[in-house]
């Protein structure tokens, strides 16, 4: 039976992803620091394997993966690096602790997760590493600069590992949602008002499922990035085709 391990998966996009894969008969593991959300998930879906994980602690990653794979016969099909945190405000308005926490969870945590999961993913049929990036990595976003930069890191890290892990038979992809209806969107960032908060966690979860089960695969042209929603796709494509000055202007209008 295929299996998926989801970090920070007790609520929001992670929970929706857990339920999407559970509905397809997968063995699902959800590990989080939110004990209240974990207890709620455990009560509603006792068949999901749950546990505590601080993604900034590498030892906890190793312990959590060892715990989960006891339920899968030792294997792991998909690691979903879902855990993330966002603090909005100009750089001079947020605290040093908030800066550090975003980098530690959104960048370091993703890196730790990939490294810890590699021994389980190697040579596993259908193995995938799924990293949750963000539309804020299309162009640097004022008001959420640290979060945006961390998601740029996720995008670059995904591209690098997609090449590096090809020899292990592991497919590496990134998911790019715009603002989704989760706790992360409960912010005063202007782009939530200009662009709206329209994407549901279920839509993101569906794209995670699709990324692991692509309908079309072109040899020598692997798809690495998966946008969520028409607006995200439009913004992403325009950033590739339009001059950088135009992309800057679009982002200035939508985010300031």
Automatic annotation (TrEMBL):
Stretches assigned to the Ketoreductase domain: 2-182
InterPro entries per UniProt: KR_dom, NAD(P)-bd_dom_sf, SDR_fam
Entry keywords, A to Z: Oxidoreductase
Keyword Nucleotide-binding carried by entry: no
Gene3D superfamilies with a match to the protein in the record: NAD(P)-binding Rossmann-like Domain
Keyword Oxidoreductase: yes
SUPFAM superfamilies reported for this sequence: NAD(P)-binding Rossmann-fold domains (SSF51735)
PANTHER family: OXIDOREDUCTASE SADH-RELATED, RETINOL DEHYDROGENASE-RELATED
Family: Belongs to the short-chain dehydrogenases/reductases (SDR) family.
Protein name: Short-chain dehydrogenase
Source organism: Tsukamurella pseudospumae
